[in-house]
Amino acid sequence: MAWFKREEKGIITTTEEKKEAPDGIWLKCPNCKKPLHYKEQVENQYVCHYCNYHLRIGSKEYFSILFDDNEFTELFPDLISGDPLNFADTKKYVDRLAESKAKTGLKDAIRAAYGKINDQDIVIACMDFAFIGGSMGSVVGEKIAQSINYCLEHKVPFLMISKSGGARMMEAAFSLMQMAKTSAKLALLAQAKLPYISLLTDPTTGGVTASYAMLGDINVSEPGALIGFAGPRVIKETIKKDLPKGFQTAEFVLEHGFLDFIVDRRRMKEQLGNFVKMMNN
């Protein structure tokens, strides 16, 4: 910020030249509406320090929080979606894919990586909501399946971080097939007695909830996450009744027995590390 001082005919005026803050430096908390500086977000692990609202983040941020020293080896980075149905609605599916890749820098709605959490080997697969709503397509299912194969081969635990609007309609039945494929792979992981931890974040809905997100040896969530199959509006219109307060929040789901724990993101690494150590033993 620069200041200029000018004297003219005995009158002193002061002019302030305002400089715009670069994009992404400031963010308004979606819950309390207070401004959050990017540095503060990083230091507080993307949790609002005013109201403790957990901001939506992607695989880049989760990897930096969970992997020791943010060191990891990405697995199967070159898998990309095809267009087997030549799908088009308001625009072609191939165009949606191209736009999402350009906007996010991602190749699909999931990344997988091998590294350590509190000095313990682990494979983490994390979904990215920014890529077509974190929708579950063939690449998502295949990366999860291949990640589980890696765990089976190297005898390491698997952590799945879900954040999704559900199945990817542009792939129709190909998308729905991923529910069965990933569930079958997780059964093999269970037979091998290798730990599987499922972390549900905001939002986790649709076919993802109906498959791998709810199949963990331990199912964990962040506070306030939306967790469900169909949306509240659809359910309300179907049953013709008002829904309970807090319906489909992590707290409601925990109360009704579908979650084991709710963990603050700032304690997540410590808690997940404890789970892995306990289950490995």
Task: Please write out the topology.
Blueprint: E1 2-8, E2 11-17, E3 26-28, E4 35-37, H1 38-43, H2 59-66, E5 72-75, H3 93-104, E6 110-117, E7 120-127, H4 138-154, E8 158-164, H5 172-191, E9 196-204, H6 206-209, E10 218-221, H7 232-239, H8 250-255, E11 261-262, H9 268-280
Parallel strand pairs: 7-8, 8-9, 9-10, 10-11
Antiparallel strand pairs: 1-2, 3-4, 5-6, 6-7
* Main sheet overview: 7 strands, mixed
Continuous helix count: 9
Content-based structural category: alpha/beta
Number of separate strands: 11
Task: Write down the CATH class of the largest domain.
Answer: Alpha Beta
Distance from first to last alpha carbon? 57 Å
Low-confidence stretches: 12-21
**How many independent structural domains?**
2
Element pattern in H and E: EEEEHHEHEEHEHEHEHHEH
Mean pLDDT: 92
Give the CATH superfamily of the largest domain. Answer: 2-enoyl-CoA Hydratase, Chain A, domain 1
Label the CATH architecture of the largest domain. Alpha-Beta Complex
Characterize the overall form. Answer: globular
Determine the CATH topology of the largest domain: 2-enoyl-CoA Hydratase, Chain A, domain 1
Rg over CA atoms, rounded to whole Å, is 22 Å
Major sheet: order of its strands?
Answer: 5-6-7-8-9-10-11
Residues in helices, as a percent range:
25-40%
